[in-house]
Amino acid sequence: MPYELRFLPSALKEWEKLGATVRGQFKKKLAERLDSPRVEADKLRAADLKDCYKIKLRAAGYRLVYRVDDQAVTVTVIAAGRRERGLAYETARKR
Fold first, then answer.
1. pTM metric for this prediction
2. Per CATH, the architecture of 4-94 is what?
3. DSSP 60
4. How far is 7 from 9, CA to CA, in rounded Å?
5. Is residue 33 annotated as a catalytic residue, yes or no?
């Protein structure tokens, strides 16, 4: 059963600011993750980002951080943005 995709309001604003090409690449990867969101290689190890995973667009330098909730069967996008100095991860920590 595929998971439902949700966005935090602040993450949705970041999503809308992304270019169409980057959004398209993230959409493709998110569609794959809705079927099996827990990819061990992409799990974030920080204690304050429990149940959080990342999607990397290496060539473009963007990261998307999402949280998996098995109870509600949802994948919630927490942050999306450039990788610069861990900015996407810091933003995710604050949310």
1. 0.88
2. 2-Layer Sandwich (3.30)
3. T
4. 6
5. no
